[in-house]
Backbone:
C-alpha cells in the first residue's frame, strides 16, 4: 500500500558537451537571443523582430563591445524594444544556451545575448519614432537617469560626426561613381559574364563592389576555422605563401571589428584557392570542406581533379581575384586611420608588388597544416 503513495521519481538525463561556440565563432551565423518582457508579453506568434548592432563608444574611440538593440512589433502596432544586457556586465559573464540531442546524448552550448524589452511610448501620433526627434530628446533629458542622459549625448554627438563624414565621403566619391557608371553603360553584355556586377547606385567607394557578388557568405562560413587560426597566428612563413595572400590577410587585420576581420580572412583564403587553380597548382582537396570544393567546381567548371580551368574560366577567375583585391585595398574607417596610419601606408605601398607576382606563382601552402606555423 505504501508504494501507491510514493511520489514518482523524475528522470535525470546526462549529456556530453560536444562544443561551446561563442559570438566570435558565430560572427556570420545567427546566434540565439533570450528576451524578457517588463510587462505582460504579447502574442508571440504575431511578433516580427529587428536586430541592430553598433560599436559601444567608450570616450572618443569605439571599443570591442557592441550595443545590440532588439525591436519587436506585433500586429496591433505596439512596439517593444530593449538593449542587450551583456554590455553592462563584466567580461567574465557569459550567457549560454544548450541544444541537446536526445538520440546522441550530446549537447552544443551557444553564447546568447540577453534582452530586456519594454513597450515604447508613442510620442508623435503613431509616426515613426526617430532617435533625434525633439520630443524623445526632451523625454530622455527630463526623465532619464544621469547615465542615460550622458549616453544619449554621446550617441547624438557620434551620430552627427558620422553624418558629416558620410556627406564628405559621398562628395569625394561622386566623380569616381559617375565615371564608373558611364563605363558600365558603355560596356558590352559579354563582359558581364566575367566581371562581378557593379553597384551603379553606390553612394561611397566601398559600395561599388560587393563581396557577396563574387562569393556568398555561406561559402565563406566553411572557412571560419582556418581563418580564425590564421588571425591568431602572429606570423607566417613567407616562403610558403603567396605575397597576394599575405597582403589580403594584412588587409583583413586592418578591420576594426571582429566580424570584419573574420570575414575578410575567409575571403583571403578564397583568393588563395583561386590563385592556385589559375596557376594549375593542386588544391588541398583532402583538407578542404566539401561545400567549398563543390562551389569552386560549379562556379569555375574545374576538370581533372579540380586542377585545370577551361580557357574562358581563367578570365573570370582572374577578374574575381582583381575585384576582390580592390575590395581589400579600400580605405578603412576614418576612426582607424589615425591609430593605424603607419600599418595602412605600409600595406598599400606593397599591394601593387604583391598582385604582380602572386597569381602565376606556384608555392604550396595548406591551411590545415598539422605542424605549427613559424612565428615571425
Residues:
Amino acid at each position: 500500500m505504501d508504494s501507491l503513495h510514493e511520489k514518482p521519481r523524475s528522470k535525470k538525463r546526462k549529456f556530453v558537451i560536444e562544443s561551446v561556440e561563442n559570438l566570435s565563432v558565430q560572427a556570420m551565423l545567427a546566434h540565439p537571443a533570450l528576451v524578457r518582457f517588463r510587462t505582460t508579453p504579447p502574442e508571440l506568434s504575431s511578433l516580427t523582430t529587428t536586430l541592430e548592432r553598433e560599436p559601444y563608444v567608450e570616450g572618443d574611440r569605439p571599443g570591442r563591445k557592441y550595443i545590440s538593440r532588439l525591436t519587436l512589433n506585433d500586429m496591433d502596432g505596439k512596439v517593444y524594444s530593449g538593449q542587450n544586457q551583456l554590455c553592462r556586465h563584466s567580461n567574465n559573464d557569459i550567457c549560454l544556451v544548450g541544444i541537446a540531442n536526445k538520440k546522441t546524448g550530446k549537447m552544443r552550448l551557444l553564447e546568447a545575448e540577453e534582452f530586456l524589452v519594454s513597450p515604447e511610448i508613442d510620442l508623435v501620433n503613431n509616426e515613426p519614432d526617430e532617435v533625434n526627434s525633439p520630443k524623445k530628446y526632451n523625454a530622455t533629458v527630463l526623465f532619464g537617469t544621469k547615465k542615460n542622459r550622458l549616453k544619449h549625448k554621446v550617441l547624438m554627438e557620434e551620430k552627427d560626426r558620422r553624418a558629416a563624414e558620410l556627406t564628405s565621403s559621398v562628395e569625394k566619391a561622386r566623380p569616381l561613381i559617375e565615371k564608373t557608371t558611364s563605363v558600365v553603360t558603355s560596356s558590352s553584355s559579354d563582359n558581364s559574364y566575367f566581371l562581378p556586377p557593379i553597384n551603379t547606385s553606390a553612394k561611397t567607394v566601398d559600395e561599388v563592389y560587393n563581396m557577396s557578388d563574387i562569393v556568398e557568405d555561406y561559402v565563406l562560413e566553411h572557412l571560419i576555422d582556418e581563418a580564425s587560426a590564421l588571425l591568431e597566428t602572429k606570423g607566417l612563413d613567407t616562403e610558403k605563401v603567396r605575397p597576394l595572400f599575405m597582403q589580403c590577410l594584412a588587409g583583413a587585420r586592418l578591420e576594426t571589428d571582429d566580424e570584419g576581420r573574420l570575414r575578410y580572412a575567409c575571403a583571403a583564403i578564397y583568393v588563395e584557392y583561386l590563385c592556385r587553380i589559375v596557376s594549375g597548382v593542386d588544391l588541398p582537396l583532402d583538407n578542404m570542406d566539401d561545400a567549398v570544393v563543390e562551389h569552386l567546381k560549379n562556379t569555375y567548371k574545374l576538370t581533372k581533379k579540380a586542377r585545370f580551368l577551361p580557357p574562358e574560366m581563367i578570365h573570370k577567375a582572374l577578374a574575381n581575384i582583381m575585384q576582390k583585391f580592390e575590395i581589400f585595398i579600400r580605405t578603412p574607417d576614418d576612426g582607424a586611420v589615425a591609430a593605424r596610419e603607419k600599418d595602412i601606408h605600409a600595406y598599400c605601398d606593397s599591394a601593387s608588388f604583391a598582385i604582380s607576382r602572386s597569381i602565376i606563382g606556384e608555392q604550396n601552402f595548406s591551411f590545415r597544416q598539422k605542424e605549427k606555423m613559424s612565428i615571425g
